[in-house]
Amino acid sequence: MPNIPTARLAKRHPVAWRLRKAVFAAACALAAANLQAVEPGEPSSSAPRFSIRGFGTVGAAHSSIDRADFVGNTRQRRGAGFSDDWAFGVDSKLGVQFDAKLTERLTGVLQVVSQQLPNGKYTPQVEWANLKYQLRSDLSVRIGRILLAPFLVADSRLIGYGYPWIRPPIETYNLAQITKSDGINMSWRARLGSATNTIQASYGQQDEDFVFAAPSLAIIVSPQVRQLVGITDTVESGPWLGRATFFTGNISLGNSEGRVKFYSLGAAYDSGSWFIQGEWSLLDSAMRLQGATTQRRIGFYLSAGYRWREFTPYFTYSETAPEGSQTAPNVLTVDQKTYSAGMRWDLARNTAAKLQFDRIKLGTQRGNIGYFTNVQRGFPFAGSGNVASVAVDFVF
What we know:
Blueprint: H1 6-12, H2 14-35, E1 49-63, E2 69-70, E3 80-81, E4 86-87, E5 93-101, E6 106-115, E7 125-136, E8 139-147, H3 170-173, E9 180-192, E10 195-207, E11 210-214, E12 217-221, E13 224-237, E14 240-253, E15 256-270, E16 274-285, E17 288-289, E18 292-293, E19 297-306, E20 311-322, E21 336-348, E22 351-362, E23 372-373, E24 384-395
């Protein structure tokens, strides 16, 4: 957040100002707890406990389409193809997470991540900053900047080491760039026979910059999402995992206002030696952007792989397309399919090297550029292209 005088910040962004105060208070509590001396004879387990963890990815991507940029998400300004022959900013990132157990019931977390931002810089950003209070063994509440979990790998979306691919399938995961919320979250966990069912409900807001891309246009936009309400239900049983999500909120950008709704269903089976998982999502967002109207879009993927010693070959099919008929003029269309094949090599403890090849085919709708940006004259509309990516993921 820019350095704005506190009075103006409180007036222009009241929820963000309250979050900043809450985070500052949490930081003070952490510092005070860290300085608190343990009384002689007091068990050391009663003192606050702190830990630091980290993760990162060093990657490079190359695209055969040199009249536009292939990017990993809609927050990236430049990528592989037009801007760079081999782009390191598509997947590279570095993150650090601080965890604190202040009491038996109260914990805190702060996660800071450096990755490519819409302005092209890598300024570290606060992804998570919240306090969690365990009301009961099965019920907890968080306040602050909180992770939203619309997808199966939402918890590890930035941690490449946590999944087999170089990046989660963008045809599905780019539908919901709302990955965190400034507000409150409640989580309730229950046993259902051999299964564990976890329901999370959240309320808050988000201010995030994105890159809006259209033919011959790529600009930074700053939509505001208010009254963001979400509920996620996750069921785990042995090798099975299932998740259902619904989010809705009021979205505004300049003089344009609307309401965004997001639905997602996902399931995964992992036997240890092989895995298969898939997700389906629907984004319903109707508002005006640069004289055009956004649309309802569906995204889905299916991925499978087999682990053999240190190697995991995998295959993925993913697709995003308009939901229903979209023949009206001035409708922003995102329509593409991707066939992916890759290999993960766990070459050392906490380190994995990956190689991935993507074949991307664009739909035939007029003006469709898929998820490419910085589109130049000569872009192969309704054409196809290849993307080759390499990466090393690590945790520490």
